[in-house]
Amino acid sequence: MKKLKFFGKIMFLVNSLAAFLLLISYILPYVPPKNFATLSVLSLGVPLLLLLNILFFVYWLLQVKKQMLLSLIVLLLGWSYLGSLYKFSSSKQIEDTNNISLLSFNVRLFNMYSWLPSKTVKADIEAFIKREQPDIICLQEYRTKDPIELEGYYGYNTTFNNAIKRGQALFSKFPIVNSGSLEFTNTSNNAIFVDVVRAKDTIRIYNLHLQSSGVNTDVDELKKGSSEQLFKQVGTTFKAQQQQVELFLAHKAKSPYKTIVTGDFNNTAYSYVYREIKGNDLVDTFEEAGNGFGKTYDFKYFPLRIDFILADKRFSINGFKTYNGLKLSDHYPIKATLSLE
């Protein structure tokens, strides 16, 4: 620090703070929000912290300063986090006669409140699904009062708000032999599941929509609220998510089938709820076959991946795609291609 000029010292202090926060974030997946709700909020900022530390490392490297070691060491300690943030390899796409394609998409009530200027969002979503022809479709914030028309699919959905008639929906080209809903308390969010039969296999598919914080992600709006209020609100949300995940895990533990878990987790891959859902028996299909940032939520200041398709390790992950050029919701659709070994 003594050899740094004033600006350099300021930069290194900011660098130290970013490195410290990133280091702290590495323990967050192991800390239940019910115990440390305020600390768990930091998981949302991990993508930004990773990018900041990468930039600081490059900054000091170009100046040939030993200060580059701080961010470098912290980044190396969390090497697996980088794989969740960005995949350098190209998207995998393996053709297999046993392939199953699964699409997950939070459709935001088909733009019922005109968040987007387009008047044809619902029709455009229908056209997109018909063009892609996924074998299984998992939709969140689906409006059952205004359903989409899909030929060749079996369907199951639930309604939680009688005025808006919204919930989650699942469609399958394979026969549905069982279905149900997991009732989350004091919320309009829920999870649904179906058991589908493909050839000689029965597959359990969950479609989750975990608790949303209800925070407006527009930066100008965020500035209007106090940081204390924001942390409290998000902390309360994460506590609710933990309770919802515990209910889901208890239900999943009773299933004898190979399982796929999809949906809008309203949290990142660096969170406690993600780690609990993934467990030891599921893999993140983006990490296996995706590329780039895998951004699934429309937040313009840094990439947020909060929508996931997690598959049983007995599946081969043959492809993954994020449709982040498709502006039909505040989320982007994701599709995974899998086959049974």
Would you spell out the secondary-structure blueprint of this structure?
Elements: H1 6-25, H2 37-40, H3 46-62, H4 68-77, H5 79-85, E1 100-106, H6 108-111, H7 121-132, E2 136-143, E3 154-157, E4 166-172, E5 176-183, E6 190-198, E7 201-209, H8 219-224, H9 227-252, E8 258-264, H10 272-278, E9 282-284, H11 285-289, E10 307-312, E11 315-322, E12 334-340
Parallel strand pairs: 1-2, 7-8
Antiparallel strand pairs: 1-12, 2-4, 3-4, 5-6, 6-7, 8-10, 9-10, 11-12
Domain Endonuclease/exonuclease/phosphatase: 103-331
GO molecular function: endonuclease activity
Pfam families: Exo_endo_phos
Task: Explain the overall architecture.
40% of the residues are buried. The strands form 2 sheets. The chain has a 6-stranded mixed beta sheet. The chain has helices at residues 6-25, 37-40, 46-62, 68-77, 79-85, 108-111, 121-132, 219-224, 227-252, 272-278, 285-289, and strands at residues 100-106, 136-143, 154-157, 166-172, 176-183, 190-198, 201-209, 258-264, 282-284, 307-312, 315-322, 334-340. β3 (154-157) and β4 form a beta hairpin. The protein folds into 2 domains: 6-85; 100-340, Endonuclease/exonuclease/phosphatase (Deoxyribonuclease I, Chain A). With 341 residues, the chain is α+β, with helices and mostly antiparallel strands. The longest helix is centred in the last third of the chain and has 26 residues, at 227-252. 35% of the residues lie in helices and 24% in strands. It is built from 11 helices and 12 strands. It holds the Pfam family Exo_endo_phos. GO terms for molecular function: endonuclease activity. The chain crosses the membrane at residues 12-31, 37-62, 69-88. Residues 103-331 form the Endonuclease/exonuclease/phosphatase domain. This is Endonuclease/exonuclease/phosphatase family protein.
